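Sanity check

After download, print the first record. It should look like this:
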Amino acid sequence: MGRFFILAVLICVALVGCDDTREATLRYRLIATVEIDGQKVEESTVMQMHYKNFHRDPHFWDYVIWLIARINPRTTASDHAAEALILDLKGRGTVFILPSVHGSMGFSHFHEVCLLLTLGIENKLNSLTTEDMRQISSAKGRMPLQLLRPEMRRPEYPKSLVSKGPAMVTFKDERDPRTIEEVDPENMERHFPGVRLLNFEIEVTDAPLTRVLTKRLPWLETIDRNETLEREPAGSMRPPHERPVAFLIHQGDFFGTGWERMLHVK
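Expected structure tokens:
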């Protein structure tokens, strides 16, 4: 009887420790600052990230794992209500800063991890703790957006594996998605003479979410989320690194991962 009571107490402790209801929301302004002929120009857009530990029916061994290793076996999911930041360059054109990065495997979303890095929560997209959630919910102020994991900041880390930052695109004709061109964040002057990227920052806010992208690019609403702006011909064997950006980028790359599910958020 005594052993059974002790086991019951331990399981209750584990239930508290493995609580899957932990969640946190961070609404923030993504701020991009560029220099145009020596003058700073700043533009921003309001986004929202929601983290929540994924819930499933508990298993006895999950509690045992937590008790012994203090490792929460749960997974943290995220929803990102976001759209590309529109940065008008004072008569020199417009660049669209996507909520995604362009790596060797294509376009992928990155704010989920970078926000945690910015808040000092490193290497923990999965199994965020109660303290992590509290830190996210209580964040305040304006701070530089941290784009790199700790190991990527080391001098010996291969530069070829380091992302240059958020993907940027522009259009020769905004009415025609096939005229899209990718802009190198480290060499914006190639497309826009006299323009140089300075930094990205975030600022915690309670302002309404920004929803202007589809008004500027209405054709985004006519394309499926998983559809590229241009399709490869049937039977094409062209590898991804040889394809123009229009054959790689999807409609969903202009938005956050949870945009459609969070359209009701004000």
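If your output differs, re-run the checksum step. Summary of this record's structure: The chain has a mean pLDDT of 80.
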